[in-house]
Specification:
By secondary structure, this protein is α/β, with parallel strands linked by helices. It contains 15 helices and ten strands. Strands 3-5-6-7-8-9-10-1-2-4 form a ten-stranded parallel β-sheet. Helix 4 links the parallel strand 5 and strand 6. Bound molecules: flavin mononucleotide.
Length: 319
């Protein structure tokens, strides 16, 4: 199976909606960007989980809500509330590399502390009414931190372990540590999914061929550089078509059409022009890789004077 990676500020409902309409069968499911246990309080509980509220998610790719944090009571409350809303699985973020998160033993910052992981799982697992999966890195400071985490994960009924084989300190620099992934894979008794640097069909095929036992492959940035990548993977499209702009298949909207629809969707959001501009810029930085045009003309979009001008430039480049 192919899944869409959680990417805070990018793979939220707005993106999943436009993506699901354009490429309905491309991803089997998505994991939501993290819902933080420490943002807001119970009074604005609905706001916190807005992204995964069932109503607007109906008909889109199925989504597994992801939780970030180590506060066990809040974790249990949130997971059970999500279960009340119909979710039968939540995902625990053990991978976030951001220093302000990791410094508080959250995300990948918990990986050097196996006892804490054990304590949290001992509290959470028996008290939530849904399954728990985890998304994890190899460690925060060292790639052997996972060695002490695996026996703990193995001692709980975890539904799935998605591994991004970098350490937290790397953030996204360097390359995934495939040899360490190969070493730990047979030691994990739960289904394992792979995530990291799948940018082409060839990248996908290499992982699938070397690790046939991997359950799902999760794609993040690759789908934002080229929204057609999952479709191309399913069709085993050769890599010389790796630029979505050149991938012509009458059944699917082109990358250009996807960008246009995403911008249209941002334009109708109930947010300020400033917020719309910021959002479009964020997506443009990634998605413009999938269309032809000079770097100079792509940069012009980012330097547009106002929202209308930005939209006009994008329309010109995507027609
Ligand atoms: C901007 C950004 C936001 C991210 N937000 C999350 C998140 O909310 N939860 C999470 O588990 N991982 C998050 N990630 C990590 C991705 O899910 C994924 O593990 C990472 O991008 C590597 O996969 P890729 O090479 O396919 O992009 C984020 C990554 C980026 C670049």
């Amino acid at each position: 199976m192919l899944s869409l990676a959680p990417m805070q500020g990018l793979t939220e409902l707005l993106f999943r909606k436009v993506y699901s309409i354009c490429y309905p069968d491309a991803f089997d499911f998505a994991v939501s960007p993290f819902l933080s246990l420490t943002h807001g309080n119970l009074k604005d509980a609905d706001k916190k989980i807005e992204d995964v509220m069932p109503g607007p998610n109906v008909g889109l790719m199925p989504v597994i809500p992801q939780i970030l944090g180590h506060e066990t009571d809040e974790f249990i409350d949130l997971a059970n509330r999500l279960n009340d809303l119909g979710y039968n699985e939540v995902n625990w973020n053990m991978g976030c590399p951001m220093r302000r998160v990791a410094g508080k033993h959250r995300g990948s910052g918990i990986l050097p502390y196996p006892d804490e992981v054990n304590d949290i799982l001992s509290e959470v697992v028996p008290n939530i009414r849904c399954s728990l999966s985890v998304k994890i890195r190899l460690g925060y400071r060292n790639n052997d931190e996972i060695d002490k985490i695996i026996p703990i994960l193995n001692s709980f009924p975890i539904k799935n372990v998605t591994i991004h084989p970098r350490i937290g300190k790397q953030v996204y620099s360097g390359v995934p540590d495939i040899e360490k992934f190969a070493e730990v894979l047979p030691k994990i008794k739960h289904p394992v999914s792979y995530n990291g640097d799948i940018f082409t069909v060839g990248d996908y095929v290499r992982i699938r061929t070397r690790f046939p036992q991997v359950k799902d492959v999760m794609i993040g940035r690759g789908a934002l550089y080229n929204p057609l990548l999952p479709v191309m993977i399913r069709q085993r499209c050769p890599d010389d078509f790796s630029n979505g702009d050149r991938f012509v298949n009458a059944s699917y909207p082109s990358a250009k059409m996807f960008i246009t629809r995403l911008v249209d969707e941002i334009m109708v959001q109930n947010i300020s022009d400033q917020a719309k501009t910021r959002k479009i810029k964020e997506y443009w930085c990634l998605l413009s890789k999938s269309i032809s045009g000079t770097e100079e003309s792509k940069r012009r979009v980012l330097h547009a004077d106002n929202l209308e001008e930005m939209r006009r430039l994008i329309t010109e480049m995507t027609k």
